[in-house]
Write a structure and sequence with these properties.
With 347 residues, this protein is of the alpha+beta class. It has 10 helices and 13 strands. The strands form 2 sheets. It has a 9-stranded mixed beta sheet with strand order 1-2-11-8-13-6-5-3-4. A 4-stranded antiparallel beta sheet has the order 7-12-9-10, with no helix packed on it.
């Protein structure tokens, strides 16, 4: 077995922010506690950077001097449970996306242990142009159960924390295109550095979303590469960037992402670890338009005004084609449900 002590010549990573990006940064909060989070931060329904929110975590302190000590710690806690890991070829530059024909994705997926991924990253640290490997959304209670007792989340009440299952994301310089979560999200950087570019739900029409039922992430993704935006192919992106907010996080920082906010995520170091928390029940799908309307009346009326505005933007864009054909930028053979829906704009 390899040991994390032989990491070699870790390159200095970090994509520069494109000149076309806005200079609006997410509002920061220092030393936020449970009461502040519940009464001042979450009710705003705006992204929020919580500086140093988990700086006291043992894993964060171990990561301060490089990856070796943290890797050894995680490998000792690893129970060998297989987790979802992905591998991207060097030419993909870490970006999760479709393959050239959109018949599949540009990465391979395999179930392996966390220790196996760490060992693989150690080997790649010797490469001049390494592939990208990462663990995506692994349930911590299933693979690193000993991690949880030492890393309590101070921004959740104890009774609420018991209902939330934290997940770990570990790997190299991965770029996840803009997507949204139906749940509230609290993302905590343990090691490395991350950059989030966030857009309010109403910008769905300007982000050129790919197939609704075929995506490399659980929810649909933007077809735009924000690191190298193509404004000829995606001209409305200019409008989205006017509303974008940037969050750059160091180890120990956390980011609150409200439900339905689009977020593009870049892991900027050679070795990155993030723990996130999702909370909020999802609504199951329905069969007919009338059933859908009745279901929405029964299950969406109690949503907050901000949540209703977010879902209105999605319904307007996809169901009522308020921005024109939402699939116009997707190859015809990959439009999925958007092709069978025969969507026509309202007049």
């Amino acid at each position: 077995m390899l040991t994390p002590r032989i990491w070699q010549n870790l390159p200095s990573y970090g994509h520069p922010r494109p000149l076309t990006m806005p200079s609006t940064f997410v509002q920061e909060w220092q030393h936020a506690d449970l009461a502040t989070f519940q009464t001042q931060i979450a009710p705003r329904n705006q992204p929020a950077i919580l500086r140093g929110a988990v700086a006291h975590w043992p894993a964060v302190k171990l990561a301060q001097n490089g990856p070796e000590a943290l890797c050894q710690y995680l490998m000792k806690l690893d129970n060998g449970q297989g987790v979802d890991a992905i591998l991207l070829a060097p030419q993909e530059n870490g970006r999760l996306f479709y393959n050239a024909e959109m018949s599949g994705f540009n990465f391979a997926r395999k179930s392996v242990s966390i220790s196996s991924v760490i060992e693989q990253m150690v080997r790649y640290s010797h490469f001049a142009n390494p592939p990208t490997v990462a663990i995506q959304s692994a349930l911590i209670s299933a693979c690193l159960p000993g991690f949880l007792p030492q890393h309590a989340m101070p921004l959740f009440a104890p009774e609420a924390a018991q209902k939330i299952a934290p997940r770990i994301w570990l790997g190299g310089q991965v770029v996840t295109p803009a997507h949204f979560d139906e749940s509230e999200n609290l993302a905590c950087v343990v090691a490395g550095k991350r950059r989030f570019t966030l857009f309010p739900p109403e910008q769905v029409g300007n982000l050129y979303i790919g197939p609704l039922d075929f995506a490399p992430t659980p929810t649909p993704i933007s077809m735009v590469d924000l690191r190298q935006p193509d404004f000829v192919q995606f001209p409305r992106l200019h409008n989205a960037l006017e509303h974008a907010q940037i969050a750059e996080l160091e180890a120990g920082d956390a980011l609150y992402i409200p439900s339905l906010w689009w977020h593009h995520v870049e892991s900027l170091a050679f070795f990155n670890v993030l723990v996130n928390y999702w909370w909020q029940e999802t609504v199951p799908s329905t069969a007919t338009p009338l059933a859908c309307m009745l279901h929405c009346l029964a299950h969406m009326q109690q949503l907050s005004p901000e949540m209703k505005r977010g879902w209105r933007a999605l319904f307007d864009h996809y169901v009522f084609a308020a921005n024109g054909d939402p699939a116009a930028h997707i190859p015809a053979h990959k439009r999925g449900i958007l092709a069978t829906a025969s969507i026509a704009p309202e007049h």
